[in-house]
From TrEMBL:
Encoding gene per record: Epsti1
Originating organism: Chordeiles acutipennis (Lesser nighthawk)
Transmembrane feature ranges: none
Protein name per Swiss-Prot or TrEMBL: ESIP1 protein
Ranges of compositional bias, category Basic and acidic residues: 1-21, 32-44
Source superkingdom: Eukaryota
InterPro entries linked: EPSTI1
Annotated spans, Disordered: 1-45
Length: 140
């Protein structure tokens, strides 16, 4: 088994040598772009400061949007509370109207009851002639 393993390793090494890639032949090129190192650093610095301003602007926009959303929520809640207050006021008015109607109806019935009791206590004839009885004097 040891000789078989050694033979396989030798075969592997031989195969690697046969299939080894050749040298790479490239045409030399000038790399690094058209600008100098100083220009590249200056451009990089400018982009860094611009990105700072952009981040600051983004933060401001985010804060503005958040503030607007909070204000919209507050206005919505105020509108809901106003609507609730209006419906409560309408209910109060309706209850007050019902209470007045019931009071007037009750007053009407009590007044009629009192008048009926007073009418029952008096005779059916003219009440003025009964009330004015006195010494009969006639001018005839």
């Amino acid at each position: 088994t040891c000789s078989v393993a050694k033979k396989e390793l030798d075969d592997l090494e031989r195969w690697k040598e046969e299939h080894k890639p050749g040298p790479i032949k490239l045409v030399p090129q000038r790399l690094g772009g058209k600008e100098s190192e100083a220009q590249a650093r200056e451009k990089q610095q400018m982009m860094l400061t611009q990105s700072k301003y952009q981040q600051k602007h983004k933060r401001e926009e985010y804060v503005k949007a958040k503030k607007a959303a909070v204000e919209a929520e507050i206005l919505k809640n105020k509108a809901i509370q106003r609507e609730k207050a209006e419906t409560l006021e309408i209910k109060k008015r309706q209850q007050e109207m019902r209470r007045r109607e019931m009071f007037l109806e009750d007053q009407y019935y009590k007044t009629n009851e009192l008048l009926n009791r007073l009418d029952l206590g008096l005779p059916k004839s003219d009440s003025c002639s009964i009330a004015n009885r006195g010494p009969k004097s006639t001018a005839w």
